[in-house]
Specification:
Elements (H helix, E strand, L loop, with lengths): L6 H10 L13 E9 L1 E2 L2 E2 L2 H12 L8 E10 L5 E14 L2 H18 L5 E7 L4
Antiparallel strand pairs: 1-5, 1-6, 2-3, 4-5
Length: about 130
């Protein structure tokens, strides 16, 4: 399957923040969502086993078609105003754009913040061309 976003449609979509504005697009628009999860938490760190259990319970059932995870070293300014450094995990998912996927991503972020007492989970979104 070839999934392409036509250049005029991409410009319009980016300008309006809407992907449904282009009637000439033969397939749904695709996005790449990248989530950044800090592994430090009050009283210790999220262990590899806890991370895997979270991935298995919260992420994979919502996005069973595939995802990518890699380790990272993160740095950010916490609520205290201090620079915090911590081991992290980066999760990348390429999927069709839409409110269903948005709700799933919000649920994943909320579950992680609640389970591991996090202030935030950063989400970065980009429009992409995907071809499988």
């Amino acid at each position: 399957m070839n999934r392409r976003i036509h250049a005029p449609c991409l410009s319009l979509a980016l300008g309006l923040g809407l992907f449904s504005a282009c009637a000439s697009m033969p397939h749904p628009a695709w996005v790449r969502d990248t989530l950044y999860f800090g592994l430090s938490r009050p009283g210790g760190a999220v262990t590899p086993e806890q991370w895997q259990a979270f991935l298995d319970a919260e992420v994979t059932p919502r996005f069973p078609d595939g995802l990518t995870v890699w380790p990272a070293a993160g740095q950010w300014r916490g609520a205290s105003g201090r620079t915090e450094r911590e081991a992290s995990r980066v999760l990348e998912i390429v999927h069709p754009a839409g409110p269903d996927a948005d709700a799933k991503l919000q649920a994943i972020r909320g579950a992680y913040k609640q389970r591991f007492h996090q202030e935030s989970v950063l989400k970065v979104r980009e429009a992409v061309q995907a071809d499988f």
